[in-house]
């Protein structure tokens, strides 16, 4: 055993200046795993740090990776495609954002040949896609008594749907109120809808029907049967007691949020069912390709929503294991990461993922792009990535930061200069596949990476995309029928625990009196919990289209 004094080493940090140097290939090899490309299956996979096309040395550890490269710098061909091929040959599950569909064509065949369940969520063409119902997992959680987790997922869904509206307005009050109403409607759907009615079509229909005067009154009637102290009751009452002009503004915001679903019936059909069990991604070999248009951002929020929901589901699955780790590693390979809307709590996600057997590979065009999207949290994301891979950039601040991280050296004349200057970083050879890699705890590595076409992979043809273009009946929830069933007594009051019941004073009141009493109790509850006034007085809130 070492003497305690032998563990105290400060000499090399004592000088005011410590010279840097380039990493030797042998140093990288010592901390990585060699993969013989033409001899699958592989024991592990990861980002390649050294490769000649025949043998790749990959970072097999639970390290996150940040890959920088301007458009056309061959990010996909040098790193992303080879890495996905290795994952497919190693049996590691992965979720990939695929803006052009190229990753699917290049790698899905290998995954299929290795026994993977291959899924394509095609937001370019809804008729050629596997189906995914974003309400299914939260609904199952809700029915299993995990209501807090279910509501958390619903809030994530609403945050994704309303993200664009949030960016376009200076007054987020209306959108917050619209989200409150939407959450109440979703909880009503979960509480009373049949399993086949739990889909985005039902939600959109409920939102649309509430905007009609006759159905708006139906919702008021339903509210009188809802526990005013429940989450649904509080969210609903806050809208119902508002002045008419306030309700109109809230409805305008709600309709703007759901418009993309209302005008795209094919999207509703695609999201009306599930062709896979999301929970199985962390147990069985699964490859998910999230295809999004790169020429427009209309549907990018759906990629954000899927990634967030998949991650949360993996966290829940990991919690069920003895060591709180997924039995099969799940890799999130997020190409064009900064071109999809910000993922809520991404900084916390990337921090917690590693210990659950999940890795993130963030592929971005520039650091500025990342900062613009995530603000101060961008630093948390980058600092949690042990591997930084740089290909090309024209951002001087970014070039300077990379240069500074590489350190300095002495010239023959005793002067200090950067190991690699910003101007040199600007001119790394695309033809040679030059990349600068800052790997965990290593000196900088300047290497040449082969193109995907130079690897000795055994390729297989990608499976044909599924066809779901035929007309499919989507079961829809009926708000009017619920109101009738509540009024007739066929449906019990909503959101009461078994030991609870409708307060006696409600039973002797007519509808308007019951609503007034519910509103009064809600105000009392808000004052009790928050001891603050409502953010706006109804008479002071301006009407907006």
From TrEMBL:
Asked if Hydrolase is a keyword of the record, the answer is: no
Tell me a GO cellular component.
Answer: plasma membrane
Where in or outside the cell it occurs: the entry states:
Cell membrane
Protein family (similarity comment): Belongs to the VirD4/TraG family.
Q: How does it sit in the membrane?
A: Multi-pass membrane protein
Does the record carry Transmembrane helix as a key word? yes
Source species of the chain: Candidatus Eubacterium avistercoris
| Name of this chain's protein | Type IV secretory system conjugative DNA transfer family protein
